[in-house]
Amino acid sequence: MNRKPFAALCALLSLLFASNAAVAHHSFAMFDHEHQIKVTGTVKEFRWQNPHVYIELGSTDAKGEARIWTIECANPGILNRIGWKFNMIKPEDKITVIIAPLRTGEPGALLKQVTLADGRKFGNGGPAGPPNIE
Amino acid sequence: MHHSIAKRLIRVTCAAMLATAVGSVCAQETGPLPKASAQKFDRRDFTGTWDRYPQSIDSRRDPSVVPLPTDAPPPPLKPQYQAAFDAAVKKIADANARGEPIANGYTACQPDGMPTMMMAMFPMEVLQSGKQVTIIQEAYNQVRRIYMGGQLPAVDDAEPGFWGHSVGKWDGDTLVVDTIGIKDYVRFRNAPHSAEMRIHERIRKLTPDHFENTVTVTDPVYLTAPWSWKWVYQRRPNYKMYEYVCEENREYADPVTGAQRMKTGGN
Lengths: 134, 267
Description:
Shape of chain A: globular
CATH superfamily of chain B: Calycin beta-barrel core domain
CATH architecture of chain B: Beta Barrel
Low-confidence stretches of chain B: 1-34
Number of helices of chain A: 2
Oligomer: heterodimer
Strand order of the largest sheet of chain B: 1-2-3-4-5-6-7-8-9
Radius of gyration of chain B: 20 Å
Helix content of chain A: 10-25%
Mean pLDDT of chain A: 85
């Protein structure tokens, strides 16, 4: 029996109610969730720490200029509970991220999804919300 | 076979979400769901790891097991404090709408304190002995100690803290806890309070795997009436709590505007 439509509906509901848990904790309003971008680059640093895990990602922008993105992830507890591992990202790894950039234009962002060098994809937990681009 | 059971569990979980329109992650965990049980269980034993029910971060949930708690109402503030409270709440909402959120205690790595800690942002662990109930909240490694049969200090002697001073007693199978001594800037839902605020909790098991906490805040200085709401918790079997040291937040408060900013560019 094909349950794909049902799974799709569940996924849609997940999007709709993803923000519930975050209301009291932390505002994600400084990130532009509407204009997400995809960046491929080389990991400079992966900090597995509270209150947020960070990825420093070196990349080259559309104008050919080098840029280091500071990418905020959820915390180790949330990420562990959705299948991340503390050492799954390492310096020099080539990864692709979908991020919601800071509204200020500074090179900081909230992670929406990361694709590791081996092709595995991970989200950033319920409060951060899902990607809206492929 | 196992595959089809897993699919069925996913379907049940999703159906439960549909029924209540609460939740965020669709059955990332597909283990068995706790069910209300007619079996006898120790109603005075809260030992174990728990999280909020229903929890929209990532846990299993089946909202059909016990009734859903309603959200906390606004604080019943005295009229002279209402305008300032409304203005503060509006300022936060407006800042979020502009995309310039105001930094808060979390930005500075401050823990929730009471009563917000019992909101259980992340899983919590309860340790229980005859003389003490200890509650550990994973977020910010928060610990509160409830001394059974203890006496609260006088308000003037209650050194203010994030979790204050708590004493507990049994009313039948209900654990009744009173707490005083919360720092004035440690607030739930931005509600102001005085040193005379008292947090009264009535904690009781609903099933072997669920318990509720009816929280009632009184404050003769700020409130016209008791402010009450309910939180419900669900057991997370075999969960091992993660440590949480708020080590380095690259978000910070702008020293001029107070807005939440972020250190960027490899700094």
